[in-house]
Amino acid sequence: MSDPVMNHSEDAPLPDAEYLKHGTVKHRLAHGKRLRQKVPLESHADHIAGPDRADPVSVLEGQATSRLPDLIPIRYGRMAASAFAFYRGGAAIMAADLSVTPISGFRAQLCGDAHLVNFGMFETPERRLIFGLNDFDETLPGPIEWDVKRLAASIEIAGRDMGFTQIERTAAVLDSIRAYREAMLEFTEMRNLDVWYAHLPAADLYTRLDELADRKSAKEASKRIEQALRRDHLHAFERLIERTDDGLRFASHPPLLTPIDELLDGEQREEYVGVIQDFLHQYRQSLHVDRRMLMESYRYVHMARKVVGVGSVGTRAWVVLLLGRDDDDPVLLQLKEAQQSVLAPYAGETTFKSQGRRVIEGQRLMQAASDHVLGHYQLQGWDGESHDFYVRQMWDGKASIDVARLTARGLAVYGEACGWTLARGHARSGDRIAMAGYLGVEEVFEQAIAEFASSYADTNERDHARLLQAIADGEVTAISGI
Question: I want to staple 347 with a disulfide (CB 3.0 to 4.6 A). Which of 174, 177, 303, 343 is the partner?
C-alpha cells in the first residue's frame, strides 16, 4: 500500500470511518429510561389466559406431528408426572402465552426455554467447571423478558411442587430476578471484553450455599460438582457401550437406547452407508479447521437412538461412537434434531439456513464457553424427509442440580445464579446499557415478574390437569415410569 498523498488539510482530523452506530453511555441509558414510559415495568405483571387461548393438549399434539410417534407416549408420561414436569415440556404453550404480554422493546439472543433445569455445570475446553445455561433447542433473538418470565415461573412452580410456602416461593423469585437486574447494572460498568469473558465458577454456587449454613443444599451442589468432574465421555462410554464379537457397540435398552441395527429395515440398510457418510462429511465441514482435523482423526463405529429430556422426547436424537488411536480412545457425540424454535411464530424465523446452525450459533452467543466440537448438519432421513441436527459431545463434564433436593433458601440462591447467568447471556447480544436503564435501580421489575410467575403457575396447574384428564379419557396415550 503506497503512502497517502499529503495535502493542505493534513492537520485536520480524519472523518469517522466507523459505519455502525454506537451511542454514548448517557444516550443509551436515557433511551432505556424513556421506554419505561411506553412500557411501564409494572405492566410485566400482566398475564391473562383468555377464552381464545389455545387448548394446551392441542398445542402438544401439534408438536407431535413432526416427531417419532412411538416416543410421544413417553413424552406425555414424563410431562404428567408433576406440574413442574409439565412446565418443562410446555415451552410451546408458554411461548404463545408470552406473545400477548407487554413487550419492552429490548431484544437479545434468548435461550427460549430458560427454566431451572436447563441451567447446570459444564467444563470449558480449558477444563474449568463453570455454571451456565446448557440447553438451546429453542434459542432465537427475542424480547428479553420472555426468558426472564420463563425462569421466574419455573421457580414458582418448582417451589409449589416442593411444598414451599407462598412467602418462600415469592422470596426465591424476587431474589432471582433481582440478581438478573443487578447483574445487568453491573455489566453496564464493565468493558465490553470483560462482559464477554465473564463467567460463574461452579464452586461459587457451593460457597454461597455453604456460607448460608444450608447443609442440605450445599451437599447437593457439592455432589453435582463431583459428578460433573467424573461425568465425561469415558464415563458415558462405560455406561452405554458393550464389547461384542463384532467390536464395540451401543447396548440395547429400548426404548430409551436402541442401536441403529434394530431400527432399520432392508431398504434402509442399503442406504445406511450413504446416510452415515453424508452426516460425517457435513458435520466435519461445519467445524473450524483445527477442530475438523481433530474430529477427522476419529473413525465412525456405531450409533443408537437415545430418548432424552422431557420437552425433547419424540424429536430425533442419536448418540454416535467414534474411536481414535484404539478402543481406549473413544468420543461420544450426541446428535439432536433441531426443529423450528417454539418462539419463531411470535419472534420471527431464524436467519440461518438450518435449524441446527440456529442452535449452535445461539449457544455460542449465550454461553460463557461452548463445546469446542459443536457442529451441525442437514440431511434426508430414512423417512424421506429433510431434518436438521446439531452435534455436541455427550456428558462432557456436565451435571445439573436436582432442584427437588434444595431447601427454600437453597432454591433462592440457585435462582440467583440462574438470574445472573441469564443477564450475562442477554448482555452479550443486546444493548446491556439501555436494558439496565430500563430495569432501573428499584425493585419494581422483580415485583412485577413475581406477580406474573404466581399467576402463570396457576395457569400451568390447569394445563397439567388438562393433560391428566386427556390421558384418563384416552384422548392421548401416556407411558409412565420411563
Answer: 343
